[in-house]
């Protein structure tokens, strides 16, 4: 063989979503003719599959990978879930906009009406004043809950990866419990998905360094094919990570919508009763 190995080292995140860094090193070398193998090291130590719970592919060529000329995410289950929640998210936000407009108009009308204005000027402050004030506060809480649904939220992949409770934790549980449906082949959890992306990035540079070693034409072709396969694999992993983060945002919107529905309903009804009581309270 006219080339011995190619390697690359990169200091970046450790892939666990906690902001810690690690030094990744990938070495690629020829095995038998037409076969390329790689070795992965983290912080100067070989990959410990037992500790990490998974292992990157030791042989990177020949291998199967989606074609670069195709959309590796087309028709995947995550794409269908993404489309469903995208439509649901739009419907929830549209409904919340109308509800916010109605509540805002109602509050404006209440504050400006002469009966309520008479309550504010009533001295000394009586029960009607406190009922009216409490009612408006309750309606304001309802409006704030509705506005949480409308307000855009930003959800990162790390937010889903490290979620310990709430909607994002539920979504992470769904993905990791059914990784054969929602994650690319060979990926077991969100941490291994993040680490796989880092390894593929470093592998691509290691292959580029190997191709610079003046290999024979047939070996150059093998390296080129391996680069195309790893680039396609990296795209597949990034597409999955992007969908996980995007669908996590939809889960959060649904959680806010549920909170606005039930808690907002309680505060809205309470606020309406208090305001009506303030209007009906006898003036002394």
Protein described:
- The protein is rod-shaped.
- A hairpin with a 5-residue loop joins strand 2 and strand 3.
- The N and C termini lie far apart (103 Å).
- Strands 1, 2, 3, 4 and 5 form a five-stranded antiparallel beta sheet that branches.
- By secondary structure, it is an alpha+beta fold.
- The model is unreliable at 71-75 (pLDDT under 50).
- It has nine helices and five strands, in the order E-E-E-E-H-E-H-H-H-H-H-H-H-H.
- It has helices at 49-52, 77-112, 114-120, 127-150, 157-161, 166-177, 179-182, 190-211, 217-280; strands spanning 6-13, 21-30, 36-42, 45-46, 59-61.
- The longest helix has 64 residues, at 217-280.
Average residue-wise pLDDT? 81
| Shape, per Cα inertia axes | rod-shaped
Q: If you compute it from the alpha carbons, what radius of gyration comes out, rounded to the nearest whole angstrom?
A: 29 Å
Compute the number of strand runs: 5
Detail the poorly predicted runs. Answer: 71-75
Summarize the biggest pleated sheet: 5 strands, antiparallel
Overall SS class: alpha+beta
Strand content: 5-15%
Element string (H = helix, E = strand): EEEEHEHHHHHHHH
Percentage of residues assigned to helices: 55-70%
Distance between the termini: 103 Å
Q: Oligomeric status of the shown chains?
A: single chain
Provide a count of the helices.
9
Keywords: Membrane, Transmembrane, Transmembrane helix
Transmembrane segments: 98-117, 129-147, 259-281
């Amino acid at each position: 063989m006219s080339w011995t190995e190619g390697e690359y080292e990169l200091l970046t995140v450790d892939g666990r979503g906690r902001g810690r860094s690690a030094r990744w090193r990938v070495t690629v070398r020829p095995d038998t003719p037409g076969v390329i193998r790689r070795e992965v090291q983290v912080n100067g130590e070989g990959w410990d599959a037992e500790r990490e719970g998974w292992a990157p592919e030791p042989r990177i060529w020949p291998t199967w990978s989606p074609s670069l000329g195709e959309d590796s995410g087309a028709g995947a289950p995550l794409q269908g879930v993404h489309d469903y929640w995208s439509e649901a998210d739009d419907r929830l936000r549209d409904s919340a906009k109308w509800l916010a407009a109605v509540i805002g108009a109602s509050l404006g009308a209440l504050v400006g009406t002469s009966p309520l204005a008479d309550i504010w000027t009533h001295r000394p402050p009586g029960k009607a004043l406190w009922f009216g004030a409490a009612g408006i506060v309750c309606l304001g809480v309802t409006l704030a809950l509705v506005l949480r649904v409308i307000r855009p939220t930003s959800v990162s992949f790390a937010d889903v990866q490290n979620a310990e409770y709430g909607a994002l934790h539920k979504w992470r549980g769904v993905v990791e419990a059914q990784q054969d449906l929602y994650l690319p082949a060979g990926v077991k959890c969100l941490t291994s998905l993040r680490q796989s992306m880092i390894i593929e990035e470093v592998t691509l540079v290691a292959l580029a360094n190997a191709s610079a070693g003046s290999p024979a034409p047939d070996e150059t072709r093998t390296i080129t094919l391996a680069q195309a396969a790893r680039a396609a694999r990296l795209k597949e992993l990034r597409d999955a990570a992007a969908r996980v983060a995007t669908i996590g945002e939809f889960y959060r919107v649904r959680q806010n919508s549920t909170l606005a529905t039930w808690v907002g309903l309680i505060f809205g009804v309470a606020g309406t009763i208090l305001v009506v009581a303030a209007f009906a309270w006898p003036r002394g």
